[in-house]
Amino acid sequence: MKIYRKKSIVIVAFQMTKERRQNGADWPYWLQLAWQKENFIIGAVSSENYPNSDGTDKLIIHTEEGVHLLVDWDDYIIKDVNGEFQMDAIKTDIFKVNYEEVELIKINDTYDIMIKQEEVELIQISKIQKK
């Protein structure tokens, strides 16, 4: 019998708060792109009260499965960095149990990610832009 360990998954994350929802100023680039997509298409992020939003309502993520995920305040919106555009909303307590912050090291307009594990490894990520 063989024993297996689940491979690491690298994600980018953004914690949505009431303040961040209202001003949108520090939203990451990938979330801004999702916000600009037409409502109700896969990968779009829209307001809960669309089209009557006043900028204080919660966000909804439109997924491939046709599910509309409600993003509560302080939830983390995560995105896979392996080229797939899959977003999800995760509660703060679950996020903190399952994810740890990684150190970014800039090398020639791309970012390598140093993952803190038993064995240190570098994962090349193609141009994660800080915006």
Condensed summary:
This protein is α+β, with helices and mostly antiparallel strands. The chain contains three helices and nine strands; from the N terminus they run E-H-H-E-E-E-E-E-H-E-E-E.
Note the main attributes of this structure:
about 130 residues; alpha+beta; 2 domains; 3-stranded antiparallel sheet; 3 helices; 9 strands; about 15% helix; globular
Total number of helices: 3
Give the termini distance in whole angstroms: 47 Å
Mean pLDDT, all residues: 76
Tell me the number of structural domains: 2
Low-confidence stretches: 114-131
What structural class do you assign from the helix and strand content? alpha+beta
> Beta-strand level of the residues, as a percent range?
25-35%
State Rg. Answer: 16 Å
Oligomer: single chain
Please give a structural write-up:
This protein has 131 residues and is of the alpha+beta class. It has two domains: 11-99, no CATH class; 100-131, no CATH class. Helices cover 16% and strands 31% of the residues. The protein is built from three helices and nine strands; from the N terminus they run βααβββββαβββ. The chain has helices spanning 18-23, 29-36, 92-98; strands spanning 11-15, 45-47, 59-62, 68-71, 76-80, 87-90, 103-107, 110-115, 121-125. The strands form three sheets. Strands 1-5-6 form a three-stranded antiparallel sheet. The radius of gyration is 16 Å and the shape is globular. The protein starts with 10 loop residues before the first strand and ends in a 6-residue tail after the last strand.
What's the topology here?
Elements lengths: L10 E5 L2 H6 L5 H8 L8 E3 L11 E4 L5 E4 L4 E5 L6 E4 L1 H7 L4 E5 L2 E6 L5 E5 L6
Antiparallel strand pairs: 1-5, 2-3, 3-4, 5-6, 7-8, 8-9
